[in-house]
Design a protein that fits this description.
The complex is a heterodimer of chains A (about 140) and B (about 220). Chain A is α/β, with parallel strands linked by helices. Chain A has a single domain, classed as 2-Layer Sandwich (Transcription Regulator spoIIAA). Chain A is built from 4 helices and 5 strands, in the order ββαβαβαβα. In chain A, helix 2 links the parallel strand 3 and strand 4. The model of chain A has no long low-confidence stretch (mean pLDDT about 90). Chain B is α+β, with helices and mostly antiparallel strands and about 220 residues long. Chain B has 8 helices and 5 strands; from the N terminus they run H-H-H-H-E-H-H-E-E-H-H-E-E. A 5-stranded antiparallel beta sheet of chain B has the order 1-2-3-5-4. The chains are: A alpha/beta (about 140), B alpha+beta (about 220). Chains A and B meet through helix 2 and helix 3 of A and helix 5, helix 6 and helix 8 of B.
């Protein structure tokens, strides 16, 4: 069986939970699949959940950063959730930190952060709409 | 045994060659020893203390200083009794991408067997992965092998060899002055930062041999 990484939609967000050994091919595939899904499913957030990942080298770390940048190009913000402590120590010591990538302790935190922001932007949208209506009614 | 040149070499990873020599020279003088007799020193605590004082005087980040002290301690603590076991624990020919995974998985298993902690196992696997990846991306094919280091401070010696194009300016890469799009610079610097000792033997057209030592 060919192993792939499933991409799941939950309300406004995509969740990618990496549970298998990351080969370079898999990383490249994931990059394309996420880009496609982000576009196709009209989400506003992406969580990459890595608590089961017990190894990340500089190439894979950079690929994850690229995925976040690609998503950002399409107006989707990315949170990396559940980074393992040994992996985090190794990344920082080698100098390949996750700079520019937002992180959360776990999946739940990440979803909370994203949904809170989405609720804020929705209420902001409603406020602007209400203002426009009010102005229209006046004129 | 740690010679004056060894001490300079360790300092030289974090300081310029001339600063490294000055720090080493001052420290040796302050404990009343002689440069050529450093290898016969029994007690390294005083020397290390003076080296640290010197290191504080010269510019380097706190992280670099800490790392440097650790590497000096490693240098002194394996005083004499270190032997690299002849028999290879594993050897992986890097031909396609799947061999990168194979090499790092074997490295991790080996690190666990030697008694490395979990974080250190990840570090060993990461170093092997970076080295294997460099071979795959830049040389096409090569070999990654590992042997045990036995002695008072057990460890792993990893060797990566290829017959690829070689590296023109290793010094610049290790100093962080050069960073390729594909990340060769970061990979090698990363290996250097994660290991206790890293030596590269390379020249354009002459392949690359990287030796890395990591102690428990």
């Amino acid at each position: 069986m060919r192993r792939t990484i499933p991409i799941i939609k939950l309300r406004q967000n995509l969740i990618v939970s990496i549970q298998i050994e990351m080969t370079d091919r898999l990383v490249a595939e994931l990059k394309e699949n996420i880009a496609f899904e982000v576009r196709a499913r009209e989400v506003s957030g992406l969580v990459i959940e890595v608590s089961a990942v017990d190894f990340l080298d500089s190439y894979i770390a950079r690929s994850l950063q690229q995925i976040a940048k690609i998503a950002a190009c399409m107006g989707v913000e990315t949170i990396l959730a559940g980074l393992d402590s040994a992996v985090a120590i190794t990344l920082v010591e080698m100098g390949a930190d996750m700079l520019g990538l937002e992180t959360a302790l776990d999946l739940e935190d990440a979803i909370d952060i994203l949904e809170e922001r989405q609720a804020e932007s929705r209420s902001e949208e409603e406020r602007v709409l209400a203002e426009i209506y009010a102005e229209l009614e006046e004129s | 045994m740690a010679t004056f040149a060894d001490i300079c070499a360790v300092l030289g990873r974090h300081y310029s060659a001339s600063s490294a020599r000055t720090i080493a020279r001052m420290a040796v003088r302050r404990i009343g020893a002689r440069e050529h007799a450093v290898a016969t020193l029994r007690d390294h605590d005083a020397l290390l203390h003076e080296l640290r004082r010197g290191m504080d005087l010269f510019a380097a980040s706190a992280t670099a200083r800490r790392l440097c002290v650790r590497q000096l301690e490693a240098l002194f603590s394996r005083e004499g009794d270190e032997t690299i076991v002849e028999v290879q624990e594993f050897e992986v020919a890097i031909v396609d991408e799947s061999h990168i995974v194979e090499a790092r998985t074997k490295a991790r298993t080996m690190a666990a067997e030697i008694g490395f902690g979990r974080t250190q196992q990840v570090k060993v696997a990461t170093v092997v992965s970076e080295l294997a990846r460099n071979i795959y991306h830049y040389a096409g094919t090569g070999v990654v092998a590992a042997r045990r280091i036995s002695g008072s401070r057990p460890g792993i010696m990893i060797e990566a060899r290829d017959e690829g194009p070689g590296i023109a300016d290793v010094e610049a890469i290790l100093a962080g002055a050069y960073r390729s799009r594909t990340g060769l610079g970061l990979g090698l610097i990363g290996c250097k930062n994660l290991s206790d000792e890293l030596t590269i033997d390379t020249a354009p057209g002459d392949g690359t041999r990287v030796k890395v030592k990591m102690y428990r």
